[in-house]
Specification:
By secondary structure, this protein is α/β, with parallel strands linked by helices. It contains five helices and four strands, in the order E-H-E-H-E-E-H-H-H. Helix 3 packs across helix 4 (about 105-120) and helix 4 crosses helix 5.
């Protein structure tokens, strides 16, 4: 599918998981991040996968062992061309993160989508505890708050 100029096309699919959040909320979280980063033309796929599937992707593409919560692949952009990215999220890992961090699963899934979009745009952060103090993390958290407020207004 070819997206029209100035379109933010975001699609969510599920591979054997039930995340406990509407696809439309994840799509909107990605759009919030894209707009905030002044992206006007994007084709983003968000795939919700099982823990074994994300572990396989993590090993194959990043040479890391075991599962992770989110993996993002941003494809090279031609000048003025669309951002094209695939984001994979593991809801079961997100659920563990949410419990550990004391946040709701919906918020954590929104966080992971925003995190994936920022990585696809070229943002990065250090490993370990330093990630929580990085500019990318601060930007991510501001966008998560924005996306959560937007969702709350729509639900009201």
């Amino acid at each position: 599918m070819i997206a029209p100029v100035n379109a933010l096309v975001v699609a969510v699919s599920r591979q054997g998981v039930r995340p406990g959040i509407a696809d439309s909320r994840l799509e909107e979280a990605a759009r919030v991040a894209l707009r905030a980063e002044r992206v006007r033309h994007a084709l983003i796929s968000i795939t919700l996968v099982t823990t074994p599937r994300i572990a396989a992707l993590n090993g194959r593409h990043l040479n890391h062992r075991g599962p992770t919560d989110v993996i993002s692949f941003g494809f090279s952009r031609e000048r003025g061309g669309p951002l094209v990215a695939d984001i994979y999220v593991a809801p079961a890992v997100a659920r563990e993160n949410a419990r550990r961090l004391g946040v709701g699963i919906r918020e954590e899934l929104v966080r992971l989508v925003v995190h994936g979009v920022l990585h696809a745009l070229g943002h990065d952060h250090p490993d370990g505890e330093a990630r929580f103090r990085s500019p990318m993390w601060r930007r991510q958290e501001a966008l998560v708050k924005r996306a959560m407020r937007r969702a709350a207004r729509r639900a009201a």
